[in-house]
Amino acid sequence: MIIDSHAHLDDKRFDDDRDRVIEKCIEDGITHIINAGADMASSKKAVELADNNDIIYASVGIHPHDAGRVGNDYLDTLALWARHPKVVAIGEIGLDYYRDLSPRDVQRKRFIEQIKLAHELDMPIIVHDRDAHGDTMDILKSHRDYIKAGVMHCFSGSLEMAKECIKLGFYISFAGPVTFTNARKLVDAAYGVPLDKILVETDCPYLTPQPHRGKRNYPGYVKLVIDRIARIKGMEFEEVADATAKNALDLFGIDGGE
Ligand code: NI
């Protein structure tokens, strides 16, 4: 099994050939794809993609970029979509102080509201944290009683931070940046995080792994992330593929079918 635990196949960059890309993923041996929602429109599309494609599952949530652009009833709408049997998490939610597209106080408010929504729905969360490690950890720690489980998506922190996240019940997800030549901190984290706490993802169409950097990313390239982690850990590709797939199935409560 090979699972891309975080993709955005709803993105407009797939509008011309989305069905063909999904076919190619199946040909490439990808068995499950979690399509993450990021705003109301993409969350809705994520659910539709999951409804129409066996290998796709969805999460619904409001990314910090869009935290300032949702109406008051957004939590009710997310809760409604989350009833679909293939919606497996609330996300992506969190803080982004790199681009600061929504005011930081609004980002924190929406993050906490959606942590509480996941708690009500008994679902795991998918956390986006960019240049906001301190506040992200503060919020996760102060709301730990509301967190069933989760994943730090496209992890960008240190090994020390990864260990703190694991203590809070999180998996650590590595994406394309672990394949980049200047990835020393991420390589240390991938080396140090136990295999039973690792997920892999593409975050496509963004963050294309080496050697395809610059091209559009797609879920088949998750194999390059798996291969990199296998090399870092001195393991076989299959061992890392199987373990990360099992971890994703456990986290998202998906029946592996075997
Ligand atoms: Ni994403």
Written description of the protein model:
By secondary structure, the protein is α/β, with parallel strands linked by helices. The chain has one domain: Metal-dependent hydrolases (TIM Barrel), CATH 3.20.20. It is 41% helix and 16% strand. The protein has 9 helices and 8 strands. It has an 8-stranded parallel β-sheet with strand order 1-2-3-4-5-6-7-8. α5 links the parallel β5 (125-130) and β6. It is globular, with a radius of gyration of 17 Å. 46% of the residues are buried. Nickel (II) ion (NI) is lined by residues 6, 8, 36, 92, 203.
* Residue share in β-strands: 15-25%
What's the CATH C level? Alpha Beta
Distance between the termini: 10 Å
The general outline is globular
Order of strands, widest sheet: 1-2-3-4-5-6-7-8
Number of folding domains? 1
- Helix-strand pattern: EHEHEHEHEHEHEHEHH
Helix vs. strand class: alpha/beta
Q: What summary fits the major beta sheet?
A: 8 strands, parallel
Topology-level CATH name: TIM Barrel
What are the distinct ligands in this entry?
nickel (II) ion
CATH architecture level-2 label: Alpha-Beta Barrel
Whole-number average pLDDT? Answer: 97
Give the proportion of residues in helices. Answer: 40-55%
